[in-house]
Amino acid sequence: GAVVSQHPSWVICKSGTSVKIECRSLDFQATTMFWYRQFPKQSLMLMATSNEGSKATYEQGVEKDKFLINHASLTLSTLTVTSAHPEDSSFYICSASGGHNEKLFFGSGTQLSVL
Amino acid sequence: DQQVKQNSPSLSVQEGRISILNCDYTNSMFDYFLWYKKYPAEGPTFLISISSIKDKNEDGRFTVFLNKSAKHLSLHIVPSQPGDSAVYFCAASGRLYNFNKFYFGSGTKLNVKP
Which of A6, A16, B26, B43 is the least buried, fewest Cβ under 10 Å from its Cβ? Predict the structure, then answer.
């Protein structure tokens, strides 16, 4: 199946710093990528839809200035958590739609811990 | 308002028996459904899908049933194996109105006992 690479897999940062998470589709072109967030024992919550070459579409309640998304190429989308705070600590996962079968392929996730 | 619901947070099954995981949805525009399996601190992995033109799809030990009138789908795993122990998410999409934008249930943690 298609491969989506996400890194870093975990990051610890100080409050107030910014953290960038990368999501790459390795063997297919992804015009659309999705970013999710998961709190412990809760569902994957869709944060935003990232479209190559255009602005991301954010879900209700997600601050676009806080979570900056850039989808500059057909294989790369980045999520930057700006001025991170402890409440931003979470598991972030990206996904991309691959090819003809319309399945979503997921990255391995990034565990963010903000001290 | 959660559009996809998995009302059972956990399920425990004996090895070799059938596991049945349930999922309900509220949006009648959903017409494509997926099941994912997820281990802690890893991304979900795709298991099986079904579109609304079918009411059943089978892949090895995994079968998904869709009841459109009830807005309900279920995943059957038979026989269950200890390696199946994980969290299972169902996801739904309405391709006609928002292609590939999936909504997830809260997950069901399956424990298969040896």
Answer: A16
